[in-house]
Design a protein that fits this description.
The structure holds two protein chains of two kinds.
Chain A (H helix, E strand, L loop, with lengths): L10 H5 L12 H11 L5 H10 L1 H10 L4 H18 L2 H14 L3 H14 L3 H4 L2 H13 L5 H8 L3 H6 L13 H11 L7 H10 L3 E4 L2 E4 L9 E3 L2 E3 L3 H10 L2 H14 L6 H13 L4 H9 L17 H11 L9 H8 L21 H16 L11 H7 L5 H13 L5 H16 L8 H17 L8
Antiparallel strand pairs in A: 1-2, 3-4
Helix pairs in contact in A: 2-3, 5-6, 5-9, 7-9, 12-13, 15-16, 15-17, 18-20, 20-24, 21-24, 22-24, 23-24
Chain B lengths: L1 H24 L20 E8 L8 E2 L4 H6 L11 E2 L5 E2 L4 H8 L3 E8 L7 H10 L10 H7 L6 E4 L19 E2 L14 H13 L9 H25 L10 H14 L6 E7 L7 H25 L6 E7 L19 E7 L5 E3 L17 E2 H13 L3 H5 L12
Parallel strand pairs in B: 1-8, 1-9, 5-11, 5-12, 6-7, 6-8
Antiparallel strand pairs in B: 2-4, 3-4, 5-10, 9-10
Helix pairs in contact in B: 3-9, 8-9
The chains are: A mainly alpha, B alpha/beta.
Chain lengths: 467, 410
């Protein structure tokens, strides 16, 4: 994409709504890009529909979610109750992966994952599926909503009260863990508060307990004295501290920069964050509106964003399954994602996942390529034929070598690969025809095998590691 | 405005640093970048943990052969002065440990005596959890090695398992799950090929797509990582076929797995932590033969592994550490076996260990409910290894400060 020069980007232009033009047409590349960032990849039908609908309508439908959400949620909630009752950590993870793959509202799941990385609570410490699900529900409800409400409710969320020791915090013996992370990781960033602010804030959060699976405010454990936090003095309670934090100049920019990294690029210029921060502040922390601005923007559809992120393990694995229109049991994905380094509900630390280039090393890249094989070969017992490129090619009537190659490259990479790579794949197809297949294969089986092998090769292209 | 600028820089600096530094570091270990292993925090030191599962009888591994209390407590199991491999005039190694005795002569074996912790449990499961999490007072779900790996970004590590063995709790919590493998094939780039020629073609496509060019972009980063990955995968394949050990590995499961570790080390993947375990130490009855077998296996496998790697020039990069969830009761039981106990010795093998015995042998006349009292808290050993060998702050990993033990040469 060469719609903008390498020179400095005009921040006004950056966040104005993108309108297709000759230089920046609404093409498959932009559609694929949108579905990688705002969802977990897409099936060919979704890509084609979006291409026809245009950006505005497509983004709107991503923000609203598709039909039959209520029906899906009803079934999902039944599962949720049973996982909470059995406190089953594997099912807990499989359940969310199912939502990411099959919920009619993938953007909501994607942004819930954003908040999960932000509040980074691990069941390794919480050890309670019910509370983890409760926190999930909270983040999902506000995934595209009011950040100040989310932050305020998070401060008394049972999983959080365990994760950052709020339930052990009482008058005269305040635990500073939550007060510190609220400022350092959840709202302001390091350098924008003093150690004394942390101590005083911790006093304001005293008194919360967990009773009968819910947070309970115990007045007798609360320190109701005066506290001075970030220059404001009063008999503050937790909600006051959240309000005070969000009144700070650094708060909107801190969240906006994190969203920028999540949706736009691993790298970016601060002057581009400022207009976003300003909008976020003016809107009273309307996060959904902020997401909409970013997804609709010129910058989002420019080469400043295109393939400017490394796919997370979730994006990598789920993108293949969605592309292949697979219907899998998601518990098979739980150990896979753990192996790739993104074990949802179990982030590695309070900072969440470092992400970016740290996703990839000699182990994880190898496991990604071997996972791509497991998902395309139909011979892996975990996924068997439920994700089958050959069946998909048949369904969309792609038969000749050219048709199949073009289809797979469009589906997964929107045909944006170096000519050399395409030529090499083409050459492989020709070789493959000449291979002697095992004698017990029918001709049809040999043809299917060629499609599956080709699909695996397409997924191992380095471009596929980029989002 | 400047605040926003600073925020943003902070947010992205981790990624930018990783872009710049991660690339050369993790697969093809760039010797120039890696500090020498004799410096604290050396970046290419290797730790191999050997778990003795079931509760090893430390008294018959490091034998106080001159102690009358020992002979009295072990009427049928005591090992005599003439049988032991003498360490000094008080203690000696189990007679089956001739290999390790040789390593002692070679200044590559440290015998750390009387290791334990306050208020020990005699439950296998709880005790094993305590050793693996380094937390006698808490129930944790993450282990000490997993926590250490959080501070060792992009460092591959391996659990070498027998067929059905679960990944050890010690390695839980690592930012990237530590793979449990039992063959080299599991760590190779796989294809679903119709035949050998097809496989070759497929690998050519996969590897041909990667042509790292100069530059700092994300695609270049992916290509560099992929090129390194494929190269080491190929190297492993070659090594699997052609590996010529420079020492004779006994034909035992433990030796086979340690040989696998040696291959992974020699393939230069940058892996730094290996974990292997050997079961069968719960010797409640007819201990003598069973324990002798185990001692022979342990000694043979560890010795072969060390000699093999030493001959390949890795002598000073290797540190092996043994542990068991507990030792055994001093007095033998009526079935010519021993029941669960407490403190026990740990063995450390490597080119940089302080050779010989370290710490005092527990006093057999001063027991607690028939059990040995510990002299060295095992968390001090972990802390020493973390700080002085792996170059990771033990305070961050263990959540407390522990006095170092003199197990490594200064």
């Amino acid at each position: 994409m060469t719609d903008i020069a390498d020179t400095k980007i005009d921040p006004n232009w950056a966040w104005q709504a993108y309108h297709p033009s000759e230089k920046a047409p609404w093409d498959m590349r932009r559609v694929g890009h949108l579905y990688r960032r705002a969802a977990f990849g897409a099936a060919v039908g979704e890509l084609e529909k979006a291409l026809k609908d245009g950006p505005e309508k497509t983004i709107e439908s991503l923000l609203q979610g598709g039909p039959k959400q209520e029906e899906y949620d009803q079934v999902s909630q039944q599962m949720e109750r049973s996982i909470a009752d059995s406190n089953n950590g594997v099912q807990l993870r499989a359940w969310w992966l199912h939502r990411m793959l099959y919920s009619p509202h993938p953007l909501q799941e994607k942004m819930t994952l954003f908040w999960h990385n932000h509040f980074a609570t691990s069941n390794a410490k919480v050890q309670n599926a019910r509370f983890m699900l409760g926190q999930y529900d909270l983040m999902c409800q506000y995934a595209l909503g009011d950040f100040s409400a989310l932050l305020s409710k998070m401060s008394r969320n049972p999983a959080m009260l365990i994760w950052l020791d709020g339930r052990d915090s009482k008058k005269g013996n305040a635990n500073e863990n939550y007060g510190r992370e609220l400022m350092e990781l959840f709202s302001l960033g390091i350098g924008h508060y003093s150690e004394n602010d942390v101590r005083e804030a911790a006093r304001a959060f005293t008194g919360w307990e967990i009773k009968d699976n819910a947070a309970l405010f115990n007045t007798s454990r609360h320190d109701d004295g005066e506290k001075t936090v970030l220059g404001q003095t009063g008999k503050w309670k937790g909600d006051d501290i959240v309000r005070i934090c969000l009144e700070q100049k650094s708060a909107p920019g801190f969240i906006a920069a994190k969203l920028y990294r999540f949706l736009v690029s691993e790298d970016g210029a601060p002057e581009l964050i400022e207009p976003l921060a300003e909008q976020f502040r003016k809107s009273g922390y309307d996060f959904g509106a902020l997401v909409k601005t970013v997804l609709s923007s010129n910058l989002f559809f420019s080469d400043q964003a295109y393939r400017k992120r490394i796919k997370s393990p979730v994006d990598f694995a789920l993108g293949i399954i969605r592309g292949l229109e697979g219907h899998i049991g998601t518990s098979a994905l739980v150990p896979v994602l753990e192996q790739l380094g993104q074990n949802v509900f179990y982030p590695p630390s309070v900072k969440g996942w470092d992400g970016g280039p740290t996703w990839l090393n000699g182990q994880t890249l190898l496991f990604r390529q071997n996972l791509a094989l497991a998902l395309t070969s139909t011979e892996d017992p975990r996924f068997s034929a439920r994700t089958d490129p050959a069946a998909l090619a048949l369904k969309v009537h792609k038969k000749t070598d050219d048709e199949v190659l073009d289809f797979l490259l469009t589906l997964f990479l929107q045909n944006d690969v170096p000519d050399e790579s395409r030529a090499r794949l083409r050459e492989y197809q020709q070789h493959a025809h000449k291979q002697t297949a095992p004698v017990y294969w029918t001709e049809e089986e040999a043809a299917d095998h060629r499609v599956r092998a080709l699909c695996h090769l397409v997924l191992t292209l380095p471009e596929y590691q980029l989002s | 405005m400047s605040q926003n600028r600073r925020d943003f820089l902070k947010l992205t600096s981790a990624g930018v640093t990783a872009l710049g530094l991660n690339m050369p570091a993790f697969l093809s270990r760039a010797a120039a970048l890696a500090p020498a292993s004799d410096k604290p925090g050396g970046k290419d030191t290797i730790l191999v943990v050997v778990e003795f599962t079931g509760g090893n009888d430390g008294l018959n591994m490091v034998v106080p052969y001159n102690d009358d209390n020992y002979k009295k407590a072990r009427p049928t199991l005591a090992i005599s002065a003439s049988q032991v491999k003498k360490i000094n005039d008080q203690i000696g190694l189990h007679p089956g440990m001739d290999g390790l005795a040789e390593l002692l002569q070679d200044n590559a074996l440290c015998v750390l005596q009387g290791v334990g912790y306050p208020t020990p449990t005699e439950s296998h499961f709880r005790a094993m959890d305590i050793w693996q999490t380094a937390a006698p007072d808490d129930t944790l779900t993450e282990g000490w090695i997993g926590n250490a790996l959080k501070h060792m970004p992009a460092t591959p590590s391996f659990h070498l398992k027998t067929s059905n063995e679960k990944s050890p709790l010690a390695m839980e919590g690592a930012p990237v799950r530590v793979p449990s493998i039992s063959t080299l094939e599991e760590f190779q780039l796989q294809t679903a090929a119709a035949n050998g020629a097809d496989k070759k073609n497929q690998r050519e496509v996969i590897e041909g797509a990667v042509k790292p060019k100069a530059g700092a972009g994300l695609l270049q980063f992916v290509e560099k990582t992929a090129a390194d990955t494929y190269a080491s995968s190929r190297r492993l394949q070659e090594i699997g076929k052609n590996y010529q050990p420079k020492a004779t590995y006994p034909n035992t499961p433990l030796a086979t797995r340690l040989k696998l570790a040696a291959q992974l080390i020699d393939a230069d993947l940058g892996a730094r932590i290996f974990y292997v375990s050997i079961d069968g130490f719960d010797t409640h009855a007819a201990q003598a033969t069973a324990h002798a077998n185990l001692m022979t296996q342990v000694s043979g496998a560890m010795t072969a592994f060390f000699k093999d790697l030493a001959a390949r020039g890795h002598r000073d990069r290797i540190l092996m550490m043994t542990f068991s969830e507990f030792g055994r009761r001093v007095k033998e039981n009526g079935s010519k076996g021993t029941d669960h106990g407490t403190a026990a010795p740990m063995l450390l093998v490597g080119g940089k260990v302080k050779a010989g015995p370290v710490g005092k042998h527990p006093d057999l006349a001063d027991l607690n409910m028939g059990n040995l009292k510990y002299g060295t808290d095992f968390r001090r050993v972990y802390a020493t290894i973390l700080d002085q060998w792996l170059g990771v702050s033990s305070k961050d990993v263990l959540g407390g400060k522990y006095e170092p033990v003199e197990i490594l040469k200064g």
